[in-house]
Design goal:
The chain is of the alpha+beta class and about 350 residues long. It contains eleven helices and ten strands. It has two domains: about 5-110, Phosphorylase Kinase, domain 1; about 115-160 and about 165-340, Aminoglycoside phosphotransferase (APH), C-terminal lobe (Aminoglycoside 3'-phosphotransferase, Chain: A, domain 2). The longest helix is centred in the C-terminal third of the chain and has 27 residues, at about 290-320.
């Protein structure tokens, strides 16, 4: 992208962003107060250190352009700004179209990020789950905002789903040419070849559809305050948002940390976080007419097979059978959940 310190400073002054932030500046913003966090073809993220007399105050700048998926975030922020849903998203100071090459520019509040916390514990996920439940409950099919959201984001039934499954079947056949890779697959989940033809589409999940964040890792969970004590939790970066089964977010929230924290009691974590989520969503008037644990396992298979499994299998094929450390763990969970749901005959 063409965004630079100078262009951000120009937008800051032209759009009078200083008048929109909740602090008083001690001097005019300068280029050296601006630094890049991430820069890519369709999106860049910058940080502004606002000069004040008080404690450090920062503003995040995001620029999005190109494909539709890169614009979902500003579309949602603007489309939902007059609804209670926005309390679970970062505060937007200014969202405007920049120059053609820069796309949509967002000046937004800077939050602490859960992934940057020195130590994350299962209790933190249990604390996040009820907040996620409240966000979902506001966007269920029978809620006023649901029609509006469906016009802003696609449904979960991706157009690429059929192609993804063809890729999986093709790469599973290719895996047989790599002895170590094929051995791991056959030792952990020999039924994967049969499961890959099933499609992993479970109709009961669609009965509980809402706005789904789509990539709810610890990187995209922000907060003000103390995550170990009092804090306000918000969700960051809705660029992958869809309208679909609410359990998809819960799967990502739980399974992503489990994959990287082998010392955690995975079964207990799933049970406790799921219980906290279900308890809160019932308070919001949402009733699950199917067993939540079963719905969770369905959602895991529907999401993880098409995403994490497909991507890790593709990585192994491209690297002559070399696997990422997480691949055997993903295989094991697919096998265990499929058995628990009786998706194949032993």
């Amino acid at each position: 992208m063409t965004l630079s310190n100078k262009k951000i400073l120009d937008y800051w002054n032209e759009w009078h962003v200083a008048n929109k932030i909740p602090v008083r500046m001690t001097r005019a913003l300068a280029e050296e107060d601006i630094s890049v966090i991430k820069e890519a073809t369709h999106r860049s993220i910058w940080r502004i250190h606002v000069p004040t007399n008080a404690e450090a105050f920062q503003v995040i700048v995001k620029a999005c352009r190109g494909r539709d998926i890169k614009l979902r975030e500003p579309i949602l922020y603007e489309g939902l700004k007059d609804t209670p849903i926005r309390r679970y998203m970062p505060e937007m100071y200014v969202v405007r179209e920049g120059d053609k090459e820069d796309g949509t520019i967002m000046f937004m509040e800077c939050l602490q990020v859960a992934s940057q916390k020195e130590a994350i514990h299962p209790e933190h996920l249990i604390k996040i789950a009820p907040v996620l439940a409240r966000l979902h409950a506001l966007t269920f099919d029978d809620k006023p905002a649901s029609k509006r959201i469906k016009k802003m984001v696609p449904t979960f039934k991706f157009q690429t789903r059929e192609r993804n499954f063809k890729d999986i079947l093709m790469n599973l056949e290719r895996a047989k040419a790599y002895p170590q890779l094929h051995q791991i697959i056959m030792e952990i989940a020999p039924e994967i070849y049969e499961l890959a033809h099933n499609g992993f589409d479970f109709p009961p999940l669609y009965e509980y559809s809402s706005l789904v964040h789509g990539d709810l890792t610890l990187n995209n969970i922000g907060y003000h305050g103390d995550l170990d004590g009092e804090c306000e939790i918000k969700f960051i970066d809705f660029g992958a948002a869809v309208y679909g089964p609410c359990f998809l977010d819960l799967v990502k929230l739980i399974e992503s940390p489990i994959d990287h924290e082998p010392s955690w009691d995975a079964e207990r974590l799933r049970r406790d976080v799921l219980k906290a989520y279900v308890r809160e969503i019932k308070k919001q008037g949402i009733i699950f007419h199917h067993d939540p644990e079963t719905l969770y396992k369905y959602a895991f298979l529907m999401r993880v097979f098409e995403y994490e499994f497909r991507r890790n299998l593709s990585f192994a094929i491209k690297h002559d059978g070399k696997m990422r450390f997480v691949f055997p763990r993903i295989l094991k969970k697919i096998n265990e959940f499929s058995q628990a749901l009786h998706l194949f005959e032993k």
